[in-house]
Structure formats: structure tokens, C-alpha cells
Amino acid sequence: MDKNTASERKLQHWSGHVASWEASGLSQRRYCDQHQLTYSSFVYWRARLKQVKDKQTTTEPIGFVPVTIKHALHSPLVLEKGDPGSVSIQLTISNKPWNS
After folding, report:
1. CA 41 and chain centroid, separation
2. Residue 70 within a domain
3. Which CA distances in Å does 9 have to 1, 15, 89?
4. 92, exposed or middle or buried, with CB in 10 Å at 0-12, 13-18, 19+?
5. DSSP3 helix / strand / coil % (the chain, rounded to 5)
6. Confidence category of residue 40, pLDDT binned at 50, 70, 90
7. Is residue 36 part of a domain?
8. What is the residue range of 29's domain?
9. Cα-to-chain-centroid distance, residue 95
């Protein structure tokens, strides 16, 4: 059996158990008892899957949209970091000079 195939199977196996545990409402230990899993292995794989998920989330490319401003603005541009993975831009347009 190929090493990558074995690793993929382990990831799928434990990913399925972690998802089932999350949906079950049981404690980790109780879920492991009911499914004849070693508690320490479950905890290890749950942490490992979280690392994989976090790595996938942080390595996704960030896209930008070009913006063309046709008139000089005297208004603030606010860039806010929201929920993980989201950014918002707020632009208030005003015809009044900035110092009025």
C-alpha cells in the first residue's frame, strides 16, 4: 500500500469520526468508548485535523478587485478586518472639502 494512500485513509477515517463526534453531542471519551476508539488517538487526530484545516484556510489566495476613482475624494477610506478570512472596505463619498 502506498504511504500517501495510507495517510489519506487515516485522515478520512479520523475526519469522519471527528465529524460524527461533533454531531453526536457526546463527550470525546464517551464517543470513543462507544466506537471502540483509543481516546488518546482520537485527541491526537482531532488536533492534527484542526492543524490541516487551519493550514488550508491560511494558504488560500486572497483576491483583490481593482478600483478606479474618477474624482478626487475628500472622504475617509476605512479598511476593517472582520471575521476570520473577511475584510471590508468602507468608503464615504462627500462633495465637501476635507477641512470644512
Report:
1. 24
2. no
3. 11, 10, 42
4. exposed
5. 50, 10, 40
6. very high
7. yes
8. 3-58
9. 40
Please state the domain count of the chain. Answer: 1
Give the span between the Cα atoms of 90 and 77, in whole angstroms: 6
| Residue 84 reports pLDDT greater than 90 | no
pLDDT of residue 100: 41
- pLDDT of 39 reads 96
Beta bridge partners of 88: 80
pLDDT of 54 strictly over 90: no
The pTM assigned to this predicted structure is 0.53
Q: What are the CA-CA distances from residue 51 to residues 2, 33, 55, 98 (Å)? A: 23, 25, 6, 47
